[in-house]
């Protein structure tokens, strides 16, 4: 299975946390920014991305506590491609979506300022 097929399969089998966040950020619902889900970036598939701001959102379940070195390498790769990576735990997205959205709103405006200042 190639990476695009795998991404499509992941979109069809989203976790509860992914579906919850997607309901709040799809169709430019969060500050007017366009997000894509299960987007291939290099050899990885990221949970959500705002390509315009080069921002990636990862939603982590309990298995991520056991794969810290893998996640660190993945984050380093994504950062080397110019992305900023933000991570939330499943329980944060499911139990405190307002807090997650507030943190994302701040991150989006911060990222927008970073990109504008680096372009100047």
* Whole-number tally of structural domains: 1
Low-confidence stretches: none
Total helices: the number is: 5
Enumerate the strands of the largest sheet in spatial order, edge to edge or round the barrel.
1-2-3-4
The proportion of strand residues reads 15-25%
Q: Work out the radius of gyration.
A: 14 Å
- What general outline do the C-alpha atoms trace? globular
Number of strands: 4
Described by strand count, sense and barrel closure, the largest sheet is: 4 strands, mixed
Percent helix: 40-55%
Helix/strand/pairing class, anyone?
alpha+beta
Determine the N-to-C terminus distance. Answer: 42 Å
* Annotated CATH topology: Endonuclease, Chain A
Task: List its traits.
single chain, 120 residues, alpha+beta, Endonuclease, Chain A, 4-stranded mixed sheet, 52% helix, globular
How is the secondary structure organized here?
Elements: H1 3-12, H2 16-25, E1 36-41, E2 44-50, E3 55-60, H3 68-80, E4 84-89, H4 90-95, H5 97-119
Parallel strand pairs: 3-4
Antiparallel strand pairs: 1-2, 2-3
């Amino acid at each position: 299975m190639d990476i695009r097929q795998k991404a499509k399969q992941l979109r069809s089998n989203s976790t509860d946390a992914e579906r919850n966040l997607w309901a709040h950020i799809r169709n430019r619902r969060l500050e007017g920014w366009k997000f894509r889900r299960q987007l291939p970036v290099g050899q990885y598939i990221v949970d959500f991305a705002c390509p315009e701001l080069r921002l990636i959102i990862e939603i982590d379940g309990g298995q991520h506590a056991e794969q810290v070195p893998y996640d660190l390498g993945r984050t380093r790769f994504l950062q080397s491609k110019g992305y900023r990576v933000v991570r939330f735990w499943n329980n944060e997205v499911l139990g405190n979506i307002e807090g997650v959205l507030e943190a994302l709103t701040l991150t989006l405006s911060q990222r927008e300022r970073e990109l504008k200042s680096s372009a100047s």
